[in-house]
Amino acid sequence: MNKIFKFEGLLTNEGWMCPAFVEVDNKGIISNISTEKLEGDIETVSGFAIPGFQNAHSHSFQYAMSGLAEIHPDPTSQDDFWSWRETMYNIALSMNPDQFEHIAAMLYAEMLSHGYTHVAEFHYVHHDPNGKPYTNLAEMGQRLVSAAKTAGIGITLVPIFYQKGGFGQNPVEKQRRFISATAMDYLELLDSSEKATQSYAKANIGLGIHSLRAVDESSMRAAFAEAKDLPIHMHIAEQLKEVSDCLDFYKQRPVEWLLDNYDVNGNFHLVHATHLVDSEVMGIAQSGAHVVLCPSTEGNLGDGIFPLQSFQQKGGKWSIGTDSHIGLNPLEELRILDYGQRLTTHRRNQFISDTNGDTGAFGIDMVIKSGRKAMGNKSENYFTIGQPFDAVILDASSPLIGTSRPEHILSTLVYSGDRTNFNGTVVDGDWKVKDGQHHLKDEIVSNFKKSLGELKIR
Ligand code: ZN
Q1: Which of 228, 265, 342, 396 is the most exposed place for a label (fewest CB within 10 A)?
Q2: Cis peptide upstream of residue 73 (ω within 30 degrees of 0)
């Protein structure tokens, strides 16, 4: 049976529609949107609906170690990305498929409560703890799809091609769960992973390369040749050491080398791209590739600051991801990104705005449209008849949002909001989270606690 929501407002590409009636069919597909009352059972919601956020970069298992790499007993030691990575490897080696799934389900439920309705899972823990492939090559990917289905979030499973331990180097022992030795091995994994996504209507597949240091040139070329129209995700230029290693090996900087050697286009989603020179900034923008920025993780790891202003001036497009999940609030990702730029340039207007000078609206628009492309979803319409109704509902009784004129709502949200300003999150026309509670919270939390207890890592 169809159902009808009445919201105080619905964010459309042309601005707020107030009030808004949204009718969805029994599969959660939007069948009508109107400012006029629609006939049927109406659920009146004291809130404003905006499209669900898109989390374009996730390593779900790393959620289990959030906050654990912050104790530094020796103040003179150098703790950086590479020492953090050692801790992360030990955790990746310890998890069985059930634990992996329970942690992901908990994380995805939390993502929903923060307003994300779709996640791109940059997934590289493929094999058993001894490094032996599971009977189902995509066993661990299947677990991620199951976790997403349990939580009710959309997922783009991006199985990652991980072959080397560094430029021209064999993998190390601790990377044994990640490795596809050849492009053929990877393409078999990709095929199995695609089959895994068929068990859930809100799952699809992407293609992923861990980084230039992790896959050799010809194997990468063979993988790209099979990409067809899939979104392609890869880490790039996150670390200064990675840039210098690339200069040693390829005699070029990572982004420079990628742009010179492959047909980089709008299907590419370059994760981090922190360390760029001007010609690389221009090259990414001109290629149409997107950058996936993960400000809370990049800050936590001390990666560096992305040259946002210059990238935007050249028409560059970007999305956000929560990566290691040290932070899960999409509004905080936008703020950290913006404030890093403000603090280093002494200017407040960092997000270049074609939305009437409204930086909040600009940030939301950018992360929704580019985020969807990272998922292989090319729809630029916020809400479309015939598409699933996936939305975050902003609480009209929240003091600042409830007293704002419509044109101030998005900036109020971006610069002062968090999940306490949401009534909840709707996916396929159903409340997955309402009043801060995920509808399967008890089961998901209980499984999560059991797995964390077994792992003894916290
Ligand atoms: Zn990452």
Answers
A1: 228
A2: no
What are the domain boundaries of the chain?
A: 3-51+383-442, 53-374
Residues of the chain with pLDDT under 70: 353-355
Please provide the average confidence, as pLDDT, over all residues in the chain: 95
**Bridge partners, 394 (sequence order):** 48, 422
Which DSSP string corresponds to 196-233?
HHTTSTTEEE-EEE--GGGS-HHHHHHHHHT-TT--EE
Q: 3-51+383-442: which CATH architecture?
A: Roll (2.30)
Residue 44 CA to ligand 1 center (angstroms) comes to 40
Q: What is the pLDDT of residue 86?
A: 79
What positions carry a catalytic annotation?
272, 323
180 Cα to the center of ligand 1, angstroms: 18
pLDDT in tens, 142-152: 999 999 999 99
The reported pLDDT for the residue numbered 79 is 72
Tell me how far apart the alpha carbons of residues 21 and 4 are, in angstroms, rounded to a whole number.
Answer: 7
Give residue 57 CA to ligand 1 midpoint distance, Å: 6
